[in-house]
Design brief:
The structure is a single chain. By secondary structure, the chain is mainly alpha-helical. The chain contains eleven helices and four strands; from the N terminus they run H-E-E-H-H-H-H-H-E-H-H-H-H-E-H. Helix 5 crosses helix 11, helix 7 packs antiparallel against helix 8 and helix 7 runs antiparallel to helix 10. The structure holds heme C (2 copies). One heme C binds next to strand 3, helix 7, helix 9, helix 10 and strand 4.
């Protein structure tokens, strides 16, 4: 708060508190005067004889008003509220927030410490670890991968043991911690419309060496697909190029879906989670992912 705002607030507070005090004092004072004259009536009369009297407020009632004023002054001395004066107790909402966060982090740290000397494979069959991992998964990952981890179009199924980037513990940890970006280049200009159809026929055929698949295979081998999808179209985990010879299709299994990806490409992003979750929770959720795929 700038100094002028601070002064503005201080003046407002003084006017308010002082005003309340004066109002109470004045009300009491006036009533005593009137009582002395012996006339309590306000002059309002209803139904002929129903009069409204102006009785003074009970003493105890007025005293509670004085007490609230005393409380206000004490509060403004101890806690922030009087302009920029921060209060003699040094309390602040940020301080309180930080203290509470630190206390809960410390409590959680004890919980996590128990898991630090176990590797991810051990954790993936540790019930206590999995129950925390499952919670993290439901809170953070389920929006994209589904609460059962089975994914959706564009979001990989994490239970099927078919991996874009690999399913060993270190790789799964790295995927979750650092994120991944899968880049399928637009290949329309390279393969052309007919080329794409032929490649799809090759990818779908049960026998990649059959005559009907030959043209597509040829096109696949010579159009730069193998760099990312491997020589046999069975995937390249270093680049996240999916296996195209299985029946699992990340972006849909219709010919239109496949053709759309081949012609137009696709960039797909798994966000990094290390900053959001910290190492302990990334390990626990990685263990949970490993447990789901077995
Ligand atoms: C905003 C959506 C989103 C969120 C949130 C998200 N993911 Fe992902 N995740 C993706 C996408 C998209 C991919 C595929 C990336 C690609 O195609 O290259 C992916 C890929 C993965 C993979 C790699 C799968 C493989 O086959 O190699 C794992 C493991 C994974 N996510 C786990 C998680 C976990 C655990 C969380 C929660 C901590 C999480 N994801 C949160 C979208 C998300
Ligand atoms: C630069 C590397 C790269 C090249 C070159 C490339 N791809 Fe891909 N392709 C990928 C990646 C990565 C994905 C997965 C995208 C994602 O993460 O969602 C993919 C996805 C696909 C898919 C969808 C797979 C699914 O499961 O839904 C098809 C089909 C495909 N590519 C075919 C091809 C064909 C055919 C070629 C050659 C004409 C080709 N790709 C060239 C990297 C590449």
């Amino acid at each position: 708060m700038s100094t002028s705002w601070s002064i503005f607030v201080i003046v407002l507070v003084i006017i308010n508190v002082g005003g309340c005090g004066w109002l109470i004092w004045w009300t009491m004072h006036m009533r005593t005067d009137e009582q002395a004259e012996g006339d309590l009536s306000t002059g309002h009369t209803w139904d002929g004889d129903l009069k409204e009297n102006n009785n003074p407020l009970p003493k105890w009632w007025l005293n509670t008003f004085y007490l609230t004023i005393i409380f206000t002054i004490a509060y403004l001395i101890l806690y922030p509220g009087f302009g920029n004066f921060s209060g003699t107790l040094g309390w602040s909402q940020y301080g309180q927030y930080e203290n509470e966060m630190a206390a809960s982090a410390e409590k959680l740290d004890d919980v996590y410490a128990a898991f630090r000397d176990q590797n991810l494979m051990e954790l993936s069959s540790n019930e206590a670890a999995l129950s925390i991992g499952r919670n993290v998964f439901l809170n953070v990952c389920a929006a994209c991968h589904g609460s059962d981890g089975r994914g959706a179009k564009g979001f990989p199924d994490l239970t099927d043991n078919d991996w874009l980037y690999g399913g060993n513990p270190e790789t799964v940890y790295a995927t979750i911690a650092n994120g991944r970006t899968g880049i399928m280049a637009p290949m329309g200009a390279v393969v052309g419309d007919d080329g794409a159809d032929a490649i799809i026929a090759f990818l779908r055929s049960d026998n990649p060496d059959s005559a009907e698949a030959a043209a597509g295979k040829q096109k696949f081998m010579t159009s730069g697909c193998i760099g990312c999808h491997g020589l046999n179209a069975e995937g390249n985990q270093a680049l996240g190029g999916p296996n195209l010879r299985d029946d699992i299709w990340l972006h849909g299994d219709s010919t239109a879906d496949m053709k759309g990806i081949i012609m137009g490409g696709k960039t797909n992003e798994m966000p990094a989670h290390i900053d959001l979750l910290g190492e302990d929770r990334v390990r626990l959720v990685a263990a949970y992912v490993l447990s789901m795929s077995r």
